Amino acid sequence: MVYRPVRERPVDEILEAVDGIVANTGFEEIALLSLSSSDYSQIETLVRELVVHHGERHLSISLPSLRIESVSVDLMDQLQATGRRSSFTFAPEAATERLRGVINKPIADEDLLAVAREVYSRGWKTIKLYFMIGHPTQTLDDVAAIVDLAMQVRAVGQREMGRKAQVNVGVSTLVPKPHTPFQWVPLADEEEIRAQQGYLKENLRGPGLKLNWNNYQETLLEAVLSRGDRRLGAVIHRAWQLGARFDGWSDQFKVEAWRQAFREAGLEIGFYSRRTRALEEVFPWDHLDAGVTKKFLARDYEASLRGETRYDCREQCYACGILAAFREERDGLTVEVWGCPPVESG
Fold first, then answer.
1. Which long-range contacts (CB under 8 A, 24 or more apart) does 274-277 make?
2. Per-residue model confidence as pLDDT tens digits over 41-71
């Protein structure tokens, strides 16, 4: 939400940047990073031009974040030409079509399996699938579907390339963030998440399957710091005094230091992480304007709970506020630059 409006770098600019990186560093792999790399409208042209420019160097090209519905056969063929054939990464985030409707990622299982078949048939051995648990309205059936879907992808791979096929499944816990439609929802309860992780550990195993999951206590701290207020400044300082360092590294994470810091500050961790916010609550970040209105986020949140899908806003405007917020900047710019339809937003 905070990266709206959609803006794309010109192909020539990216090629120039890659030329400089390769010439001055000696690296042999380029990663094209984006929230969803295959949504870039010129992705096939870009990959093809990179192959032309650096084919003799055998430069590997990585697209670590791909949206299933926007991956084409031509793009797969272009990536295959780079010689990189180790793994393909997709993020369905949910394994049932109902829950994908809640999080606004409408992907049919058949589409995922069809793409998996194309990937394995071109020689890639591993497909990485990323899911989240702890979504609003999620049930154990939605968690069980992660196992079923991973098994189906593995079966597709085994039909295409035998026992070499591998499916790596990463499962993280949803951390509600400010300036998003889920900023009102609580972090899922620890007992619930551990039960879901236990189910996955028990059922998602066997040849060609690998499961990764996250530490709930680290997730809890992330949730607290993500939606905290200015009072957490004292907590962070005290945790540092108690030895908290490099908390993103699991072996350096000192959960007791954080708990003690909260106790000394007289603050409750659950207040920041595990309660549902009222729609009318004033948030500590409300004075920050990213252009997308809180009113729109609330409408989007309520729509998600009804399972209503909102499609690409470059095709249909939902009046999120971004067009009005940047009205002056839009003057004289084309639709192609902004990626927004030419409508007036009230």
1. 274/186, 274/187, 274/189, 275/186, 276/184, 276/185, 276/186, 277/183, 277/184, 277/185
2. 888 889 888 888 887 777 888 877 777 766 7
- Are 75 and 53 spatial neighbours (Cβ–Cβ below 8 Å)? no
Give pTM, 2 decimals: 0.85
129 pairs with which residues across the strands? Answer: 90, 169
Highest mean pLDDT among 90-104, 164-178, 329-343: 164-178
- The backbone torsions φ and ψ at residue 236, rounded to the nearest 5 degrees and listed phi first, read -60, -45
Q: How far is CA 267 from CA 75, 77, 193, 249, in A?
A: 51, 55, 24, 25
Which of 75, 79, 39 lies closest to 62, judged by CA?
Answer: 79
- Strand-by-strand arrangement of the 209-213 sheet: 87-93, 126-133, 166-173, 209-213
Contact 67, 104 (CB under 8 A): no
Q: What is the pLDDT of residues 294-321, one digit of tens each?
A: 999 999 999 998 888 887 787 888 889 9
Please, are residues 16 and 30 in contact by the beta-carbon 8 Å criterion? Answer: no
State which H helix or E strand residue 339 sits in: none
Spatial CB neighbours of 326, under 8 Å, sequence gap ≥ 6: 5, 291
Cα 210 to Cα 286: distance, rounded to the nearest angstrom? 41
Distance between CA 203 and CA 205 in Å, rounded?
A: 6
